[in-house]
């Protein structure tokens, strides 16, 4: 059998060094890795503030977390964090230390959230969705 005729317009792939392919592989892995969070960490994705009412600001934030087994997204020291899932399940919000160091934490009566009271008397109320 005669070999199949080759196309005259066909060009062979250009030869690239192994260093080039290693650089392509490393850069693609870096792009994939940078989109992922390290285990046990959180980042704020969105933050909206509404100051339309006098003496009152309503803030809503969305966080993205990569929590370890037995943890869930919560709040520690007024920042998103991974906390023990038991705290959220039992609604013992103050156990996750959601307030800043100089603030006091109190549960809301219906356990739907907590308040952080600053030394000057200002109160910040947080409700969990």
Automatic annotation (TrEMBL):
<keyword id="KW-0732">Signal</keyword>
<dbReference type="GO" id="GO:0007186">
    <property type="term" value="P:G protein-coupled receptor signaling pathway"/>
</dbReference>
<dbReference type="GO" id="GO:0048018">
    <property type="term" value="F:receptor ligand activity"/>
</dbReference>
<dbReference type="GO" id="GO:0005615">
    <property type="term" value="C:extracellular space"/>
</dbReference>
<dbReference type="InterPro" id="IPR040329">
    <property type="entry name" value="TAFA-5"/>
</dbReference>
<comment type="similarity">
    <text>Belongs to the TAFA family.</text>
</comment>
<feature type="signal peptide">
    <location>
        <begin position="1"/>
        <end position="39"/>
    </location>
</feature>
<dbReference type="GO" id="GO:0001664">
    <property type="term" value="F:G protein-coupled receptor binding"/>
</dbReference>
<protein>
    <submittedName>
        <fullName>Uncharacterized protein</fullName>
    </submittedName>
</protein>
<dbReference type="Pfam" id="PF12020">
    <property type="entry name" value="TAFA"/>
</dbReference>
<dbReference type="InterPro" id="IPR020350">
    <property type="entry name" value="Chemokine-like_TAFA"/>
</dbReference>
């Amino acid at each position: 059998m005669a070999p199949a005729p080759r196309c005259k317009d066909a060009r062979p792939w250009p030869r690239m060094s192994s260093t080039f392919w290693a650089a392509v592989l490393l850069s693609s892995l870096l792009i994939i890795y940078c989109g992922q969070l390290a285990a046990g960490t959180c980042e704020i994705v969105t933050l909206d503030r509404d100051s339309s009412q006098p003496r009152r600001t309503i803030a809503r934030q969305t966080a993205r977390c990569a929590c370890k087994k037995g943890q869930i997204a919560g709040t520690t020291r007024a920042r998103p964090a991974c906390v023990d899932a038991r705290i959220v399940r039992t609604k013992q919000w103050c156990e996750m230390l959601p307030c800043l160091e100089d603030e006091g934490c109190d549960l809301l009566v219906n356990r739907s959230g907590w308040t952080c009271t600053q030394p000057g008397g200002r109160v910040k109320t947080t409700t969990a969705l």
